Q: What sequence folds into this?
């Protein structure tokens, strides 16, 4: 039997200093383990538990799933369930058998993945004089010499592999927790913005929406832990801004909503009211409300941002558009140019409020030829406003995205 097993690769395979040093270190480690000086790490492991750990820690060793499939095929040729790295563990499958256990992988592909396993230091090549894989037995049938692939490095690194797998699991847990936190921040911010826009709250909500979209971009399924941490911090700051802006937009009556509900309950509990008198008062109130113009809607966008989205409207102001009054005057001029009748314009202002109607005119002007019928579109919005279903938010969003859909 050979005293020292072959270390250099057969044929055109090159010997490197790194490979030589790895083989030397493995041999010294085996000597220490056989002498009982290996410490807690005995260089042994259940081969299937070890394969699971390699699969989890594959990124740490720079190998992919197909390379692991070849390693698993090699491990399946080891006769014992436990891999004992105190001595060489030589497996010598034929190319055909190795291909079958690698799920029919082509020989050229197998050779490439075997080279990757050697490069990662998980196996050694133990080539014979002619490069063939075989074993030589003695007169009693015992294994005398074997040439093929040595799995001892895999067993000797078992402790390191298990630690790497645990580190990967810990990172995955932290990543899942961070991703969940990021998702919750994104959802809460988006819903607060949507609520503010639907309610017509004052504030630059489209700017908040754009910043949220920027923070949500680039977060793929395998986003790095550092990137997720940075995004969470930025989202926490944005959330604080959005929440403060929404709270600041609430009136004193809204902030004390419980008192209003109590007052309303007391009023509704007065059973001494004369029903006929109540009916007359209700009809009178309806008549008065019908004669009043629609209450001015709180703008969900600042004037400066509106001009950035709809710069064309500024050309129709006498000295530009620097105030909402300038915008109203410019919109009155533009609506005639767009073919919108005075009656349709009056009804739009009554249903939407003057500022909101002026914003619509600015948007219609900016969209230009993309709008087939400005008058018909305004009448449609006016009808929605009469039903309480009007919102300028979708139009502003379309302008923000620069969409050119025909309306």
A:
């Amino acid at each position: 039997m050979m005293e020292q097993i072959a270390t250099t690769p057969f044929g055109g395979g090159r010997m490197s200093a790194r490979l030589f040093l790895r083989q030397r270190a493995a041999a010294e480690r085996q000597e220490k383990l056989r002498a009982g000086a290996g410490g807690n790490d005995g260089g042994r492991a259940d081969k299937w538990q070890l394969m699971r750990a390699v699969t989890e820690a594959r990124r740490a060793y720079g190998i992919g799933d197909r390379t692991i499939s070849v390693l698993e095929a090699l491990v399946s040729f080891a006769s014992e369930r436990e891999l004992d790295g105190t001595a060489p563990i030589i497996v010598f499958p034929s190319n055909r058998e190795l291909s079958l256990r690698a799920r029919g992988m082509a020989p050229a592909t197998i050779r490439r993945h075997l080279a990757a396993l050697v490069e990662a230091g998980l196996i050694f090549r133990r080539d014979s004089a002619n490069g063939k894989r075989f074993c030589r037995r003695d007169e009693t049938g015992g294994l005398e010499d074997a040439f093929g692939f040595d799995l001892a490095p895999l067993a000797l690194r078992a402790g390191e592999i298990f630690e790497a797998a645990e580190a990967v699991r810990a990172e995955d847990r932290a990543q899942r927790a961070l991703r969940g936190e990021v998702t919750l921040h994104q959802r809460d911010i988006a819903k607060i913005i949507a609520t503010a826009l639907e309610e017509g709250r004052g504030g630059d909500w489209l700017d908040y929406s754009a910043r949220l979209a920027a923070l949500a971009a680039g977060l793929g399924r395998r986003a790095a832990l550092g990137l997720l941490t940075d995004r969470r911090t930025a989202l926490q700051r944005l959330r604080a801004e959005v929440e403060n802006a929404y709270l600041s937009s609430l009136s004193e009556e809204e902030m004390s909503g419980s008192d209003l509900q109590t007052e309303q309950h007391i009023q509704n509990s007065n059973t001494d009211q004369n029903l006929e008198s109540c009916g007359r008062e209700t009809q009178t109130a309806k008549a008065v409300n019908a004669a009043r113009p629609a209450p001015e809607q709180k703008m969900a966008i600042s004037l400066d941002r509106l001009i950035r989205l709809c710069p064309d409207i500024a050309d129709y102001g006498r000295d530009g558009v620097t105030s909402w009054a300038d915008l109203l005057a410019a919109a009155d001029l533009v609506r005639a140019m767009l073919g919108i009748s005075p009656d349709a314009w009056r009804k739009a202002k009554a249903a939407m409020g003057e500022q909101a109607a002026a914003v619509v005119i600015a948007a219609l002007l900016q969209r230009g030829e993309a709008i087939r019928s400005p008058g018909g579109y305004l009448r449609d919005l006016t009808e929605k406003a009469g039903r309480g279903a009007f919102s300028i938010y979708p139009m502003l969003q379309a302008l923000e995205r620069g969409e050119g859909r025909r309306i």
Summary: Residues 296-401 form one domain.
